[in-house]
Amino acid sequence: MAVKNLLRRIFTKEKKVVICGLDSAGKSTMVSFLQNGTFMEHTPTMGKDMSTMEVQGIRINLMDMGGQKDFRDLWIGEANNAECVIFMIDAYARERFNEARDELWKLSNVFKKKPLIILANKYDLQPIAQLSEIIDALELKKLPSFEILPVSCKTGYGIVRAFMKIYYKLSGKQLTKRLSIKGVTVFDKAGIPLTSSSNQDILQGGLFSAISSFVQESFNSELNQLKIGGHIIVFKRSQNLLGSIVLSDSDNIDPKEAEDGLNELLCHLENMCPELGREQLDSEKIEFLVNQYASNLM
Mind listing the pLDDT tens digit for each residue in 195-204? Predict the structure, then answer.
């Protein structure tokens, strides 16, 4: 065995997470979003499929369990050998809540010993079931403990928050977000702002005007950073869009990390909006997608 691989195994703890849920709940979509940062179409998982991620000293083995009836008997054996169990439910498919409840409760003995996280998927759709409705439908209050989180494995809404919760269950440590982003804006090819998202009302008044003016005057320049009034603004271009992220100059953050995060957002938008390549732009769709994805950045 190579020294590098040996040391990696010694210093990296391995943890197993099992992801269960009915077919079409979005289990494989979540795994691929974690790996690729965007939505990808998937065929149904046949049996089970394992993926591995290394995050801050922990190697996480994600066991994606097939949701069709023929494969559900496999769940309990894998769940018994896991450190954490995720049960994913399609929050848009109310007609399948009873079926999901019955399958969940077949694992009830496992949840006496293992942490259970319920991920309510498809929170990009309407009308969607509220968490309280899902808790009642699945009779979750009868379980010793559980946590339930809303996500969209298509738009990325809530994905980072959910993964941070999973990481905490595995390690007992908080997964640190290295970026402290104040606001994000996406512009079209002409430098016209399409949408902005901010958690502190940063993108108002003079700062927003300065960013917009810079973009319109310098859209095709190579400059990718700007300092304004105690803030660092990082810019990134994709084929059809430009984005900006606002950071505090006092946070001592490597702007390259912000640039990488912004690049992931723009790649996600390009992937979700193929019409951009035909020079067709749906500003409402862009705004919706940015607001959904922004939960991972701020």
Answer: 887 765 655 6
